[in-house]
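Researcher: Here's a chain I'd like modeled. Treat it as a single chain, no partners, no ligands.
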Amino acid sequence: MTNIMRGVFRAGERVQLTGPKGRLNTITLRAGAVFGTHRGDIKHDDIIGKPDGSVITNQAGVEYLALRPLLTDFVLSMPRGAAIVYPKDAASIVTMGDIFPGARVVEAGVGSGALSMYLLRAVGESGSLTSFERRAE
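Model: Modeled as a single isolated chain. Structure tokens:
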């Protein structure tokens, strides 16, 4: 888990935009792309190269706060499909399962991958997670 993003935003990275009323939008930055809102468009190029925590102004003058999403933000922005393990449930699983840095964990069924991300964070670099999935997709 050493690929924590730092520094300025780069193309291909996910960014969470918080609008004036607190609405959150998570997008993947692509050079030349535009994110459209009912309050105007935000050019991805206006975000790329800016540091985490920058305030981005769209062409209509509306300001958005640009932040790197937390693990919780990734999970909560996942499309509904397989059952998603939400943060409060993942915390209970990690605690009751006594998952700690350096632990070796076996997971049966990956599903959405949300729990896998929490388990990987909990075991850290010195631990391991082995996941088994019966379905090919």
